[in-house]
Amino acid sequence: VILVLAVVASLGVGAAAAVGKQDKFLAPVHPSCSTSGNYTDGSQFKKNLDELLAALPAAASRNDGFYIGTVGDSGSPDQVFTLIMCYADHDAAECLECLTGAPAGIMALCPGSRDVRAAYDACILRYSPVSPFASTADLEIPFYVKYTAPILVDPVAMARAWLPLMADLTGQAAGSLARAASGSTPYDASWRVFGLAQCTRNLNASECSRCLSSLVGKLPELFQNETGGAVKAYSCYVHYQIGPFEITLPPASEPPPQSSPKPGGQSLQVWEASSSSRTRLLIGSSIGTVSFLIILVGVLVCLLVRRRQKHPITANKQAKGQEPEDGKFSDGDDPAMEDDFEKGTGPKRFRYVELAIATDNFSDEKKLGEGGFGSVYRGYLKESNLEVAIKRVSKGSKQGKKEYASEVTIISRLRHRNLVQLIGWCHGGGELLLVYELMPKGSLDTHLYGGKNAAVLPWPVRHEIVLGLGSALLYLNQEWEQCVLHRDIKPSNIMLDASFAAKLGDFGLARLVDHGRGSHTTVLAGTMGYMDPECMTTGRTSAESDVYSFGVVLLEIACGRRPLAVAEEEQMAHLAQRVWASYGVGRVLDAADARLEGEFDAEEVERVMVVGLWCAHPDRSLRPSIRQAVGVLRREQPLPTLPERMPVATFLYVPLLV
Ligand SMILES: *[C@@H]1O[C@H](CO)[C@@H](O)[C@H](O)[C@H]1NC(C)=O
Ligand SMILES: *[C@@H]1O[C@H](CO)[C@@H](O)[C@H](O)[C@H]1NC(C)=O
Ligand SMILES: *[C@@H]1O[C@H](CO)[C@@H](O)[C@H](O)[C@H]1NC(C)=O
C-alpha cells in the first residue's frame, strides 16, 4: 500500500473554457495506470473506451453517483468496463464536474493504459478490460486529506470520540444497501465529531467492512493534531471531523447530521455554516510527494500548452470574457487582438523602440523594482509628455505571457479612478511590455512597512485608501458589465498616486466571469495570507475571494501588521485571528497600529477593523458583498455584529507548496 500525501486535491488544470466541455481537464492525484499491453489510437478498444467515458456523467447522475458499465462485444478483448463513484460528501454538481473533467485528464496522464485507477477530490474513476470489477476490496490509498481549524485538539479526547464512531459507521455502511453511513458523537461539552463511511456498491458487506476497517486503522497514524481527516481509497472512503459537513449523495435514508447543542446559540450557527463550506487543507510532507507534484504540474502545463496550441482561440472570444490564452503573444502579432485595441481611445500599442528610448534602453538606473513576472522601469514618453511605469515581462515565462494577456485583455477595458490606468502595450521582437501611468508614491506596503525610520502613514490617509480600494472593488465586482475577479489584492498591488490616492494595479491574475458565477480555474493563484482559505483548497475563486483579500488588507491598514507573521511569544497566527480575539473581548482598538499613537478617529478605525473581520470571515457565505462592506465603511449602514469567537478556519496551516 502506497500512501501519497497530496497538496491540492482538486489539483488539475482547467483548459480554456471556450474550447468546450470536452476539454475540461481534471488531473487525478497519484493515478495508477497499466504500462503494458497498451491500446493504440484508432483501435476498437479506444473507441469503446471513448464511448464509455462520454456516457459517465449522465450515468452517474442517473445512479446516485455510482455506476458500473461496459461497452464492446461481450468476451472480446476490446470490451471495456468502468466503475465510478462519487464521494458522498460532495454534491451532485461537484460530482458531475469531476466526472466531466476526469476522462480528458486521465487520457492525458495515462495514454494507452488499458487498466486505470484514478481518484479525484470528488470522484473515483476506474476502467479495465477485465470483467467484472473484482468484488474484492482494493485497499490502496491514493491520497488523504487533513482538516484543520484554529481550535486546540486534544488527540486523546479526539480519538476517544471518533474511533468508536467510525467503527460503528463501518458496520452500518457495510450493512446498508447504499454501502454508506454517517453519524456523529460528542467530542467535548461544545462540539461533536461527525463521520462518513462509504464503499463502492459492488462490494458485499464483508468486503466493504474489510475495506473500511483497513482505512479506519490508518487514521491514528495519519491524523494526530488535526480536527479531522478523510482517506480516499479506490473501494471505500472515510471522513471524520469536528463539526458537521454536508452529505448530499446517498444514503438518502440518513438525514444530514444535526448539529450538537452548543452554549451560546450564535456561535453554533456559525459552526454549522462554516463547516459546510468544507474548508480543508492538504499538507505536503515527504520530498517524494513534493517532487511528484512538481512533475505532475509540469506534465500538465506541457500538455496544456500543447493542447492549446492545437486549439487556438480567437481574440474575439477572449474579449468576450474567456480566460486569456498563453503562448499567443509570443513573437508573431495577432491581428484580431490589435483590432480590438486600436479602435477607440483606450490604451494604444507602442513600438518597442519608443519604450526603449523612454527607459534609456531599460537601464538599471531606471529600474523601479522586480514584479512577479518581470521588472518595472520608470520611463518618460516625450511625445505625450508623460511619466510612465513600464513592466517588462520576463522572456520565456509562460505564466508571464499569460499575465500579460490577462492585463491587456482585462485592464485595458476598465476605467475607474482607483485603478491603475494602462496606457499601452507592446509585443513583438520577443518582448512583452505594459505601459502604465506612473504612481509616484509607490505601493502601499512600502508605506505600511517602511522600517523604523520611515514616516508613519497617518490615519486619514489610510482611511482614504480604504475607501478608494473599496470603490475600485465595487466597480470590478459589481458595477462593470462583467464581474472582474482580481484574485491578488494585497498592499504591494495597491499603488499610490502623488496625493496618496489608492489605485489597484496588477491584473495579471485577474479573470472575467459572468455576474454571480465563480471561476473554475483550478490552478492556485494569489498570495498566501490574502487567499480565501476555500480557494486554496478547492481552487474555486469567486467575488467572495476578492472580498476576503480586501478584508485582510483592511486589517493590515488598521493594524500595520502583515497577515501572516510569527508573534513574539506564540506560533503562526493569521492577523484576522488576532484582531478577532481583541474584538471578542470588546477591545478591538487594542489591535490598532501602535505607531499611530492613538491619533485617529476611533469610530473610523473600529469600522475598518470590523468590516475587515467580516470580509475575512472563514465562511464565504457569511461574508458581506463588496457593496455591503463599502456601505458600512462609508457609514451608510450600521456595523454588523460578529460572533465573539472567530469561526472555524483553516488558514493556520501553511501548505508547503503555495
Ligand atoms: C503504456 O502507456 C503508459 C502510459 O499510459 C506508458 O507509461 C507506458 O510506457 C506504455 N507502455 C508501452 C509498452 O508502450
Ligand atoms: C464477499 O466477497 C468476497 C470477495 O469476492 C468473497 O470472498 C466472500 O466470500 C463474499 N462474502 C459473502 C458473505 O458473500
Ligand atoms: C501534536 O501536538 C503535540 C503537542 O503540541 C506535539 O507534541 C506533537 O508532536 C504533534 N504531533 C504531530 C504529528 O505534529
TrEMBL record:
SUPFAM superfamilies: Protein kinase-like (PK-like) (SSF56112). One of its GO terms (biological process) is defense response to oomycetes. It is a single-pass type I membrane protein. It is found in: Cell membrane. Residues 362-642 form the Protein kinase domain. Residues 332-341 have a biased composition (Acidic residues). Residues 27-132, 140-245 form the Gnk2-homologous domain. GO terms for molecular function: ATP binding; protein kinase activity. One of its GO terms (cellular component) is plasma membrane. Gene3D superfamilies: Gnk2 domain, C-X8-C-X2-C motif, Phosphorylase Kinase, domain 1, Transferase(Phosphotransferase) domain 1. Keywords: ATP-binding, Cell membrane, Glycoprotein, Kinase, Membrane, Nucleotide-binding, Receptor, Repeat, Signal, Transferase, Transmembrane, Transmembrane helix. Residues 249-270, 314-343 are annotated as: Disordered. Residues 320-331 have a biased composition (Basic and acidic residues). ATP binds at K391. In the N-terminal section; belongs to the leguminous lectin family. This is Protein kinase domain-containing protein. It comes from Aegilops tauschii subsp. strangulata (Goatgrass).
